[in-house]
Write a structure and sequence with these properties.
Strands 3, 4, 5, 6, 7, 8, 9, 10, 11 and 12 form a ten-stranded antiparallel beta sheet that branches. A hairpin with a 6-residue loop joins strand 1 (14-20) and strand 2 (27-34). The longest helix is centred in the first third of the chain and has 35 residues, at 72-106. Among the domains are: 14-59; 73-108; 165-282, Glucose Permease (Domain IIA). Helices cover 26% and strands 25% of the residues. By secondary structure, it is α+β, with helices and mostly antiparallel strands. The chain has helices at residues 35-59, 72-106, 133-145; strands spanning 14-20, 27-34, 174-177, 188-191, 197-199, 204-212, 216-223, 227-237, 244-245, 250-254, 267-273, 276-278.
Length: 286
């Protein structure tokens, strides 16, 4: 038998790839590669193509060409809807809390927001109040020094009459609806430019912010001397329940919210004193 003289192939065997001119047989370009180098070259070329494609899809607008991928407008709408849903849930929770407190007050119970939890682990019956010699000496010194004080026994709390109060106009405009208690119209309607700023009539604390089907976005402020001011049909509210406001501070934006008692951009403004409505035109110049 004849021996097989074929040489075994190896990964390190070199191969030459050349480009020649068919007419002159001149070698124009050549490259020498082993199977190992050719495998690495192909691997890095494929890897580079994959990385470049992934980068183009991730960092450019080409990803919007993928079927089912949301475009810029769709993503913006999704984000805005999520924000609106969160705001709506919060407003509903505040409204439910407000009605729960209102029902509790009508029923003669204490509102949930004003309930104070008592520490049941402490024994308040065994507390003893004893005065020390230092405390007694301090009391004698203070009483001696303030005996001839001209400010002693002066009344620090007083009740201001409504006539002496200066109500800041919430908006400037034309009165389109007057106060009429007989028709259960407990406020004044003022027509002004759309999206005008609504200011607080007096300094106080915001006791309610919310939205109702009849009057849209509403904000109520508790002032001193049992005075409450109410602002209805706003486009948006700038304050939240519990915020402290100053006289003339912006609290809302004029709008046309509500589905029943509105026919255009205006502000419905009410003043209540000790639970009774007052005619705002007698105290405010719009």
């Amino acid at each position: 038998m004849a021996k097989n003289d074929k040489k075994k192939t190896n990964w390190r065997d070199k191969f030459k790839f050349a480009v020649t001119n068919d007419t002159t047989f001149e070698e124009l370009w050549r490259i020498k590669l082993t199977r190992y180098n050719a495998f690495l070259l192909v691997f890095f070329v494929v890897f580079f193509i994959i990385i470049a494609t992934a980068s183009l899809i991730s960092f450019t607008n080409l990803r919007e060409l993928i079927p089912g991928y949301p475009d810029v407008t769709m993503r913006r709408d999704i984000l805005l809807n999520a924000i609106r849903l969160d705001s709506l849930e919060r407003e509903l929770a505040l409204r439910d809390h407000y009605f729960e407190n209102l029902n509790a007050i009508i029923a003669g119970e204490r509102p949930a927001s004003s309930m104070v939890l008592r520490d049941t682990t402490a024994n308040y019956n065994n507390i003893s109040f004893r005065s020390s010699p230092e405390d007694s000496a301090l009391r004698v010194q203070v009483e001696t020094e303030s005996r001839y004080s001209i400010s002693q026994n002066q009344v620090t709390e007083y009740e201001t009459s409504l006539a002496s109060l200066h109500f800041f106009p919430p908006v400037r405009g034309i009165v389109s609806g007057k106060f009429d208690q007989a028709k259960r119209h407990f406020g004044t309607d003022i027509v002004t430019r759309p999206k005008a700023q609504v200011d607080a009539a007096l300094a106080g604390t915001v006791i309610f912010t919310g939205w109702t089907r009849e009057t849209g976005y509403v904000i109520e402020i508790q002032h001193a001397n049992n005075i409450v001011s109410i602002y209805k049909h706003n486009a948006s509210l700038l304050k939240e329940t519990g915020d402290l406001v100053r006289t003339g501070e912006a609290i809302a934006v004029v709008g046309n919210s509500g589905e029943i008692y509105t026919s255009g951009p205006h502000l419905h403004f009410e003043i209540w004193y000790k639970g009774s409505p007052l005619d705002p035109e007698k105290y405010v110049i719009f």
